[in-house]
């Protein structure tokens, strides 16, 4: 398995092309799984305050033989802390819980448009970056109208937009918007419900033709879309396999076959950022 490529934004942020999702990886057992991911070659770790595992992520990084400056540690601001002062304190607490001197990337987890404090939260993240608590800032699940408003009211465009993205929900318009505005797109739930994907005849046939597994096939699809997938895996062999997606390439026809799986209502849990609220 070769080195993981890096994707860069015009804003100066560079990220590994695949990251490790850490949802539900908590405590000592979670820290060990994350540490195994670092040993496997992951250099981008995705966490959140609402995952309740910033401590486990930080412990894995601190106890790893990988130099700190080579690891991109991400966390996210929960909706209950969108008020400016609350948001700054929440970022501070994220850093303290991690046991690290700083976090590399911090994201507003959801816009919560009905609450309508996401611009206030974004101003707090800008301040946190200026204070050195975090190195780069971005958002999750923001639609074009949310992103337009952030830029218009603060003059600062997010470096990252992490969105639900998988073959059932490829987010063509959102990805195009992000690319046009120099925003790196990350994919959460990149394998959708993995069990469903494993049973897809289209994917199974393609994977057999290429001599790869279905998860590797789908993660390669993300890479060729220009998105950064964040698959979660606990077994060392699966962690390694999810990184090993850069030694083959999908043709335009193969990409189109995967695109044919898109569904009009492709979201896994009806979490539409236009109305969904997360706290």
From TrEMBL:
NADP-dependent oxidoreductase domain segment(s): 31-262
SUPFAM superfamilies reported for this sequence: NAD(P)-linked oxidoreductase
Keywords: NADP, Oxidoreductase
Coiled coil residues, start to end: none
PROSITE patterns hit by this protein: ALDOKETO_REDUCTASE_1, ALDOKETO_REDUCTASE_2
InterPro entries the record matches: AKR, Aldo/ket_reductase_CS, NAD(P)_OxRdtase_dom_sf, NADP_OxRdtase_dom
PANTHER family: 2,5-DIKETO-D-GLUCONIC ACID REDUCTASE, NADP-DEPENDENT OXIDOREDUCTASE DOMAIN-CONTAINING PROTEIN
Family: Belongs to the aldo/keto reductase family.
UniProt-recorded name of the protein: Aldo/keto reductase
Species: Streptomyces spiramenti
Taxonomic lineage of the native organism: Bacteria, Bacillati, Actinomycetota, Actinomycetes, Kitasatosporales
């Amino acid at each position: 398995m070769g080195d993981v490529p890096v994707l860069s934004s015009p804003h100066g942020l560079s990220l590994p092309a695949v990251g490790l999702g850490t949802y539900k990886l908590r405590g000592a057992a979670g820290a060990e799984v994350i540490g195994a991911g670092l040993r496997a070659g992951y250099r981008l770790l995705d966490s959140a305050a609402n995952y309740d595992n910033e401590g486990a992520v930080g412990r894995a990084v601190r106890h790893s033989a990988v130099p700190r400056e080579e690891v991109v540690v991400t966390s996210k601001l929960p909706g209950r802390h969108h008020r400016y002062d609350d948001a700054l304190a929440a970022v501070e607490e994220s850093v303290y819980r991690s046991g690290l001197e700083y976090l590399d990337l911090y994201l507003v987890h959801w816009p919560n448009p009905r609450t309508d404090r996401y611009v206030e939260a974004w101003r707090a993240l800008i301040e946190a970056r200026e204070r050195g608590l975090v190195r780069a800032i971005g958002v999750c699940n923001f639609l074009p109208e949310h992103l337009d408003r952030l830029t218009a009211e603060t003059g600062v465009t997010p470096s990252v937009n992490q969105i639900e993205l998988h073959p059932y929900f490829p987010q063509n318009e959102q990805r195009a918007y992000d690319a046009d505005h120099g925003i790196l797109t990350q994919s959460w739930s990149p394998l959708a419900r993995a069990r469903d994907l494993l049973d897809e005849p289209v994917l199974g046939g393609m994977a057999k033709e290429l001599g790869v597994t279905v998860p590797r096939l789908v993660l390669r699809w993300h890479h060729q879309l220009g998105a950064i997938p964040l698959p979660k895996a606990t077994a060392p062999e699966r962690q390694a396999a999810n990184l090993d997606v850069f030694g083959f390439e999908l043709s335009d026809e193969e990409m189109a076959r995967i695109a044919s799986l898109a569904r009009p209502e492709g979201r896994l849990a009806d979490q539409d950022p236009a109305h969904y609220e997360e706290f």
